[in-house]
Amino acid sequence: MALFVTQRVDKKNNDFEPLPEGYYEMTIDSTGPDATKGGTEYIKVALRVRKDLDQALPETNGKYHNRLVFASVWRRKATGQYDEGDLSSITQAAGYAPGTPIEDWNDWSQKLEGKNVRVKVSVSEDTYQGKTTKRTQVWPSDFEPTQFPTQAQMQSQPQPFAQSQPQAQAQVNDNDLPF
Cα–Cα distances in Å, from 10 out to 13, 29, 50, 99, 162? Predict the structure, then answer.
């Protein structure tokens, strides 16, 4: 399970405001293992709302560019392991094919950092000790490939052979045929 929590300080009255619901184009800033104060381990994924899409996405990225959202991918209580499907969803959204070899956490982090993804953000309310707080949520299944790849991303994507090689138009006349 992953939970994104983001807060923005309103400098006038120090209120915290979650990122509004919607689809955002984001860049993965960093990933890595972390732990709560109580010792519960999780993987923290820091995402930044892309600032290069203000004109293309004025209602989301345009209004909230450069905001950070932090994801938490928790260990499953039953197994004590991270769900491979959760990790795979994030990895595939970053542009890696299923089955891409990953050596360790450092390799996973290096593969993801700087990659652009599209993320669906929703907002929920949580009540704890009588206080209700709005929280921004994104689940691993809400990660998608970016709809706005950068030039560098397009150049690094391998092209299928059929698309990368122009097809020659063969000219055949009846005299060339053996029948």
Answer: 6, 23, 21, 44, 53
Write down the pLDDT at residue 145: 96
CA distance 19 to 66: 12
CA 135, 139, 145 angle in degrees (round to 5)?
120
Contact 75, 66 (CB under 8 A): no
Tokens 């950068």 label which residue? 150
Q: Is the dihedral of CA 57, 62, 65, 71 positive or negative?
A: negative
Residues with Cβ < 8 Å from 79, sequence gap 6 or more? none
Task: Report if pTM > 0.90.
Answer: no
According to the model, what pLDDT value does residue 162 have? 39
Which residues of the chain carry a pLDDT beneath 50?
1-15, 158-170, 172, 176-179
| Residues 5 and 136 sit within 8 Å (Cβ to Cβ) | yes
Is-contact 119 49, C-beta < 8 A? no
